[in-house]
């Protein structure tokens, strides 16, 4: 959908016809804007202090709420649909980092936040990223659509964990 997350630059159209081995299992993809941000190769994107090892935090360039951050693993990981049970600790860690970043920015009502992932194919960037929005009660009309709970294009972090817990076979 238009204006999905925009966390950066024009989608460096990742050719799907190029299944590079590193594209899912960690590592670095020089064509991926989030990989470059993680390595501080995107001077236009300021990283926020993030104490979680292996993760980076920064503001979404098209904020959908007064607070809108992205939490991104430094290593290239595919989108949330490709995650498995063993990724639950990672998702939990990303949620922790998201809450920390809100608190650091003086937003403390953790009942009024929305955290989640866009479900493929509604991701503009394939590198795994958690959207952290607050206050959830102040999402504008468009954001309410884009980050809508129980939609087929957005899954909250809690729902994703539940889904991973109940998933026994590979997708
Ligand atoms: Zn997104
Ligand atoms: Zn990447």
From TrEMBL:
Q: Cellular component per GO?
A: cytoplasm; nucleus
Q: Does the keyword Flavoprotein apply?
A: no
Renumbered to this chain, the Low complexity biased-composition regions fall at 1-15
Q: Which GO terms describe its molecular function?
A: adenosine 5'-monophosphoramidase activity; identical protein binding; nucleotide binding
Instruction: Cite the residue spans of the region called Disordered.
Output: 1-25
- Coiled-coil residue spans: none
Q: Which residues form the HIT domain?
A: 33-144
Query: What are the record keywords, sorted?
Result: Hydrolase, Nucleotide-binding
By its UniProt entry, which CDD domains does this protein fall under? aprataxin_related
Matching entries from SUPFAM superfamilies are given as:
HIT-like
* InterPro entries recorded: HIT-like (IPR011146), HIT-like_sf (IPR036265)
**Catalytic activity line of the entry:** adenosine 5'-phosphoramidate + H2O = NH4(+) + AMP
Pfam families with a match to the protein in the record: DcpS_C
| Short motif Histidine triad motif, span | 127-131
The family note in this entry says: Belongs to the HINT family.
Q: What is this protein called?
A: Adenosine 5'-monophosphoramidase HINT3
């Amino acid at each position: 959908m238009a204006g999905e997350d925009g966390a950066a630059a024009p989608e460096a159209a990742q050719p799907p016809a190029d299944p590079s081995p590193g594209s899912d299992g960690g590592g670095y993809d020089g064509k991926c804007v989030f990989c470059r941000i993680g390595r501080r190769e995107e001077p236009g994107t300021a990283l926020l202090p993030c104490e979680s090892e292996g993760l980076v935090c920064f503001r979404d360039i098209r904020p959908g709420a007064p607070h809108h951050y992205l939490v991104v693993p430094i290593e290239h990981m595919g989108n949330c649909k490709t995650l498995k049970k063993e990724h639950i600790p990672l998702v939990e860690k990303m949620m922790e980092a998201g809450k920390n970043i809100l608190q650091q920015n003086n937003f403390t009502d953790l009942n009024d936040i929305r955290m989640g992932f866009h479900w493929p194919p509604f991701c503009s960037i394939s590198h795994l990223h958690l959207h952290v929005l607050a206050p959830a009660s102040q999402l504008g009309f468009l954001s309410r659509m884009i980050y809508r709970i129980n939609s087929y294009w957005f899954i909250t972090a809690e729902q994703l964990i539940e889904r991973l817990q109940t998933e026994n076979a590979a997708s």
